[in-house]
């Protein structure tokens, strides 16, 4: 009896093969891309443009990512709107390069920012990926959370629904546009973008075959309140223990002085801060008259010691401690400032999160209402289901998925131990099922690297991770591909592709540092 294809299979065959006679420029139109979407997708193509080689693309009014993607290959750029509920919607952008590498890539969004990350998408297109980014349902800067107030559906979009929904529809567009589905699908992102990737592996393991996740903000509800807590530790500004911004570079230099050579080499890099027993007392002001710009008073030393302590709660049962959030690591001092806010307040990452995202209450006052119960309530509410705490990755593993995670030891925004906790919790969940975590999940800790990229002390930090190439381009240079570094040993995304498609595990990554971050 001859084989009879299913109706679904027949429809897909017609959809993907019916475009073969059309040129890419013909397909790159609102009408052309709309034809690749189903009527019940609740989606609408807003714009579609053909971009010539070496062209640029971005959108006016994008406050989160105002930079255009530049030096693009010839491609089709389109924006699609998806209605996610009766009160919410989100957009996503897609780059469809003429010279396609048969792969799909999604990139993410940082902090609480919303809108399409065209700048990061540009790097993906230069590799040859069909690349997407979602707006997450709003348009704002990283610390602006006003969009979340009394908007539970928009919170759900930001927390993960928009990335999943965008990925599903974007894959349909890619298949229709090229006449073939992507061979493999990948994700790359750091910080909130890293959380988006890890959460995809946890909640939607079918979305991506390979995920590159840096400094994932997976403990999101605790993280924002931790930033409020550490910001409050360094207040009030007229108190005896207050550490002004300028002192953090002094502190960082003292940490480096005490432990730079702990690995046997004086190179401006602390290889592993866990091996350091920092003595902040050596910064005490002892000379007379006192130069307050180069030393610390005893109350200031006390404040500094608190910043290096993890957040742990002694429960009613004195035999039980609750680990809430890790501490700043040694070497992260210069970037600690991100947790301190203006006007005698902690960072907006903490205060505005509590007001707009967690409690929907603009009158909430951290000086009155903030205590341990706030952490308990945040975990209970988990608005939008934002936390990446489903550590059972057995389905992702069973599909052959691979996850490469990295974190800078000098990260002063999301402590390095956040990644250790995520890795350890996942290890335990997998061990219970007899699965070796090393089969599909690797964690790299990067000496001297700050949050996602960069270093104050000339540590090597470039290894082709999320937005590394675009960060090198910040001073106007066009550096893709980075000369001599476009291989799996020096490029984490290429290493991930090699692992997914060739079975070669990622055992090492070689980082590079250019003088003044200028490629010459």
Automatic annotation (TrEMBL):
Record's keyword annotation contains Hydrolase: yes
Tell me which positions the record assigns to the signal sequence.
1-21
* InterPro entries in the cross-refs: Tannase/feruloyl_esterase
Q: What class of enzyme is it?
A: hydrolase
What EC number(s) would the UniProt record show? 3.1.1.-
Family (UniProt): Belongs to the tannase family.
- This protein is called what? Carboxylic ester hydrolase
Q: To which species is this protein native?
A: Colletotrichum graminicola (strain M1.001 / M2 / FGSC 10212) (Maize anthracnose fungus)
């Amino acid at each position: 009896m001859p084989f009879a294809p299913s109706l679904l299979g027949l429809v897909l065959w017609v959809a993907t093969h019916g475009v073969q006679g059309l040129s890419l420029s013909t397909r790159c139109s609102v009408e052309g891309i709309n034809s690749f979407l189903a009527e019940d997708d609740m989606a609408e193509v807003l714009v579609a443009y053909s971009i010539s080689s070496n062209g640029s693309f971005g959108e006016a009014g994008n406050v989160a990512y105002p930079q255009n993607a530049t030096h693009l290959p010839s491609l089709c750029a389109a924006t699609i709107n998806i209605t996610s509920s009766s009160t919410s919607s989100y957009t996503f952008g897609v780059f469809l390069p003429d010279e396609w590498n048969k792969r799909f890539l999604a990139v993410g969004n940082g902090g609480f920012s919303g809108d399409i990350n065209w700048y990061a998408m540009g790097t993906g297109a230069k590799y040859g990926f069909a690349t997407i980014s979602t707006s997450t349902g709003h348009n704002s800067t990283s610390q602006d959370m006003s969009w979340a107030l009394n908007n539970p559906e928009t919170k759900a979009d930001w927390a993960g629904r928009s990335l999943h929904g965008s990925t599903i529809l974007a894959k349909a567009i890619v298949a229709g546009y090229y006449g073939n589905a992507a061979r493999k699908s990948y994700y790359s992102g750091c910080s909130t973008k890293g959380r988006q990737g890890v959460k995809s592996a946890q909640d939607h393991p079918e979305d991506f075959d390979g995920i590159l996740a840096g400094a994932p903000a997976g403990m999101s509800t605790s993280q924002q309140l931790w930033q409020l807590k550490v910001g409050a530790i360094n207040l009030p500004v007229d108190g005896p223990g207050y550490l002004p911004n300028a002192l953090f570079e002094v502190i960082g230099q003292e940490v480096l002085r005490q432990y730079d050579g702990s690995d046997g080499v004086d190179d401006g890099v602390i290889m592993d801060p866990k091996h350091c027993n920092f003595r902040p007392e050596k910064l005490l002001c002892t000379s007379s008259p006192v130069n307050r710009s180069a030393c610390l008073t005893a109350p200031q030393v006390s404040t500094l010691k608190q910043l290096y302590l993890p957040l742990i709660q002694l429960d009613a049962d004195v035999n039980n401690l609750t680990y809430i959030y890790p501490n700043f690591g040694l070497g992260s001092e210069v970037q600690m400032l991100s947790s301190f806010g203006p006007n005698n307040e902690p960072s907006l990452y903490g205060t505005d999160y509590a007001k707009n995202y967690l409690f929907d209450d603009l009158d909430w006052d951290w000086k009155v209402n903030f205590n341990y119960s706030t952490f308990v309530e945040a975990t209970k509410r988990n608005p939008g289901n934002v936390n990446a705490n489903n550590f059972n990755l057995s389905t992702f593993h069973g599909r052959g998925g691979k996850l490469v995670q990295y974190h800078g030891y000098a990260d002063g925004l999301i402590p390095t131990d956040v990644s250790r906790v995520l890795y350890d919790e996942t290890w335990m969940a997998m061990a219970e099922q007899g699965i070796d975590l090393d089969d599909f999940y690797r964690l790299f800790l990067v000496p001297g690297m700050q949050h996602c990229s960069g270093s104050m002390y000339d540590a090597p930090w470039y290894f082709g991770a999320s937005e590394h190439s675009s960060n090198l381009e910040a001073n106007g240079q066009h550096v893709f591909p980075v000369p001599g570094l476009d291989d799996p040993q020096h490029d984490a995304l290429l290493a991930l592709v090699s692992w997914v498609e060739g079975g070669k595990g990622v055992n090492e990554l070689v980082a590079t540092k250019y003088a003044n971050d200028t490629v010459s």
